């Protein structure tokens, strides 16, 4: 018996590989390759062992050799390609990279361009191509369906306010494109595909070959949607009407077969294609407003139905396969997040939201765990910044109870032997969704915070050695910190100590989200303020003002602004001494960052409240300060900055004119209730969250 601990071929396998290297008659070679294929399929050990002794190079040479021969070698080619396809599915990056180095993708496209006489050969080649693009799922995967694009860099989670949701996606994510491929992925299959002349034309031409070809091609197209540029290239090649036609055709065939009670296996083929067509449409319009609008306006020339009507009809049917339900919901989520549909549109607020909640709360099976995680993440994406939907999502206890189960006792719904990383993933998603739901409505905040052991469990999650869980716990604290009631009741010394630890972390994401929480809990009415000050938070925030990360600088000045609100004269003096008066003047005169300038002006307003104005004006030189502010007032600035300047100037002037009524501290402090974004007012809790 072979030793499965050693990634080396057994003697029997060595003999087989020796035969593979020898020049043999075609039928003998066919038999050997078939045996090699049967060994490597599903065997991580065999793939690694055969890779180490050069089997991949032999297969690629055979592929090139027999692709150029005009004789009838289709059967042998299919076996070679299927064997390569198995290697391409490997989770070992070295194996996949080596296949790409050897030009397998280019050779497959060359074959698809020249040898179209065999449908089976075409299908085999397309399946092999697809293997390069699909996620390399681990051995613990229970689902044969993948829900992610491995080449898509996830957008960093930012806990949004409602006014953030009014901004275009590019402003929220602060990235002009959806993602860029990492530069270190020199052998990215996506880059290789787009470098091959006519590659998209080849796929477009072959999409009518068979249903198997359709499935493979559309799966590949899904993986190509990695940024706005690639999405546009696919739209320009007219893939939208082609895929829409496929969607309609397979929906119609599926309905006819169900009515005629024909073979179930045929139905499944149609359902798979429906699912992958929906997945492609979701990928195509993700974070792309112009394409989302184009899809919204797409009408079938054959049925006169809009694409939205067709997708909506899939959500109205009961007993739909979960994959179809998921991608149909996600389609409308993407239209909502790109502002093509409002959050209260029935397709979003009723159909998609209720479907996603149903999918992630129904009885979980191990084989569906990835789907449940994706549904949770899609709910996070939809509900974040759309508080109008929060009440709908929590109208019944169904969703909250399931989230608590995922966090407290995931073993009740998952197999005890399931991969721990999956447990971490589903707990992280559940905590983050609770953070989103707790970020706006006070009743929902209270319901979540009052759940027994939730805060203690979140603290425990932060202390676990998983960054995703640490971030999720901090996000929950962030959502709850937007409530005055929660600041006075839920936040304790342990949470303060966690935040003081987190803001010193070497992980930038953890530092940024902890700075967001601290920005809220340093307010005057928070029970945490004193402990944070005793823990040295002021010096930490002052140091972060010069950090190279822009978002962290904004969070720091925001936290200092909140800390100064209704604070003692000593705290204000410490902040001024930490920043220095000279630097404050320099920032006022030279700062070009509108967000930072608004926070700085608000900070000054908080300095000069009624009782401390005279004491602090001598430090600043009142005449110089007023002239500096007046010069700013004469410049072209957004309304928010102008409003801050007018209020601050009026208040300083009133200090010199006893006949004029001075602004009360409450009025001056109202700057803390103003959002960084114009025309939307919110309370102190609603901050620019750059986590």
UniProtKB/TrEMBL annotation:
This is Armadillo repeat-containing protein 8. The keyword Cytoplasm applies. SUPFAM superfamilies: ARM repeat. The keyword Nucleus applies. It holds the Pfam family Arm. It comes from the Eukaryota. It comes from Adineta ricciae (Rotifer). It is found in: Cytoplasm; Nucleus. InterPro entries: ARM-like (IPR011989), ARM-type_fold (IPR016024), Armadillo (IPR000225), ARMC8/Vid28 (IPR038739). GO terms for cellular component: cytoplasm; GID complex; nucleus. Keywords: Cytoplasm, Nucleus, Repeat. GO terms for biological process: proteasome-mediated ubiquitin-dependent protein catabolic process. Its main location: cytoplasm.
């Amino acid at each position: 018996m072979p030793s499965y601990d050693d990634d080396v071929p057994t003697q029997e396998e060595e003999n087989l590989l020796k035969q593979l290297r020898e020049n043999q008659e075609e039928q003998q070679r066919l038999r050997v390759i078939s045996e090699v294929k049967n060994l490597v399929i599903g065997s991580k050990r065999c793939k690694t062992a055969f890779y180490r002794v050069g089997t991949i190079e032999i297969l690629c040479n055979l592929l090139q050799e027999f692709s150029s021969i005009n004789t009838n070698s289709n059967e042998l080619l299919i076996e070679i390609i299927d064997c390569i396809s198995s290697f391409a599915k490997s989770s070992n990056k070295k194996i996949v990279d080596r296949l790409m180095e050897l030009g397998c993708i280019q050779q497959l496209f060359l074959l698809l361009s020249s040898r179209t006489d065999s449908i089976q050969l075409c299908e085999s080649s397309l399946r092999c191509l697809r293997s390069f693009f699909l996620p390399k799922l681990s051995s613990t995967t229970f689902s044969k369906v993948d829900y992610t694009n491995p080449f898509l860099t996830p957008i960093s989670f930012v806990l949004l306010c409602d006014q953030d949701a009014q901004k275009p996606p590019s402003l929220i994510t602060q990235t002009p494109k959806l993602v860029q491929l990492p530069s270190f992925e020199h052998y990215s299959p996506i880059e290789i595909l787009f470098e091959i002349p006519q590659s998209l034309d080849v796929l477009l031409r072959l999409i009518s070959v068979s249903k198997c070809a359709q499935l493979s091609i559309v799966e590949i197209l899904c993986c190509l949607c990695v940024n706005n540029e690639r999405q546009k290239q696919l739209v320009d090649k007219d893939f939208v009407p082609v895929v829409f036609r496929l969607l309609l055709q397979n929906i119609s065939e599926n309905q006819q077969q169900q009515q005629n009670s024909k073979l179930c296996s045929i139905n499944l083929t149609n359902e798979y294609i429906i699912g992958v067509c929906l997945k492609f449409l979701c990928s195509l319009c993700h974070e792309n407003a112009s394409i989302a609008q184009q899809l919204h306006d797409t009408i079938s020339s054959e049925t006169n139905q809009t694409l939205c009507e067709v997708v909506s009809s899939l959500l109205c049917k009961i007993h739909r396969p979960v994959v179809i339900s998921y991608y149909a919901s996600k389609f409308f989520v993407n239209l909502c997040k790109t502002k093509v549909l409002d959050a209260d549109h029935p397709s979003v607020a009723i159909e998609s939201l209720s479907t996603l909640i149903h999918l992630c709360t129904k009885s979980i099976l191990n084989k569906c765990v990835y789907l449940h995680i994706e549904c949770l993440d899609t709910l996070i994406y939809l509900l974040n910044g759309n508080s109008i939907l929060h009440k709908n999502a929590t109208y019944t206890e169904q969703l909250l109870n399931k989230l608590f189960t995922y966090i407290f006792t995931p073993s009740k719904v998952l197999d005890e032997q399931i991969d721990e990383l999956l447990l971490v993933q589903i707990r992280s998603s559940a905590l983050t969704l609770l953070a989103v739901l707790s970020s706006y409505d006070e009743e929902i905040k209270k319901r979540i915070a009052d759940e027994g052991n939730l805060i203690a469990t979140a603290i425990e999650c932060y202390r676990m050695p998983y960054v995703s869980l640490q971030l999720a716990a901090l996000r929950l604290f962030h959502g709850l910190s937007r409530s005055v009631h929660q600041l006075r009741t839920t936040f304790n010394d342990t949470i303060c100590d966690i935040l003081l630890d987190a803001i010193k972390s070497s992980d930038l994401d953890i530092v940024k989200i902890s700075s967001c929480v601290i920005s809220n809990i340093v307010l005057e009415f928070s029970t945490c303020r004193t402990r944070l000050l005793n823990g040295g938070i002021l010096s930490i925030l002052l140091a972060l003002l010069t950090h190279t990360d822009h978002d962290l600088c904004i969070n720091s000045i925001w936290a200092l602004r909140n800390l100064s609100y209704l604070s003692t004269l000593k705290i204000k003096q410490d902040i001024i001494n930490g920043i220095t008066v000279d630097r404050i003047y320099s920032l006022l005169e030279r700062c070009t960052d509108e967000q930072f300038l608004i926070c700085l002006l608000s900070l000054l307003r908080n300095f000069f409240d009624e009782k401390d104005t005279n004491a602090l004006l001598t430090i600043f030189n009142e005449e110089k300060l007023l002239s500096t502010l007046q010069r700013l007032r004469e410049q072209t600035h957004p309304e928010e900055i102008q409003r801050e300047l007018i209020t601050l100037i009026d208040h300083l002037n009133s200090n010199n004119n006893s006949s004029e009524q001075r602004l009360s501290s409450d009025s001056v402090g109202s700057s803390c209730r103003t959002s960084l974004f114009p025309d939307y007012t919110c309370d102190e809790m609603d901050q620019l969250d750059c986590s």
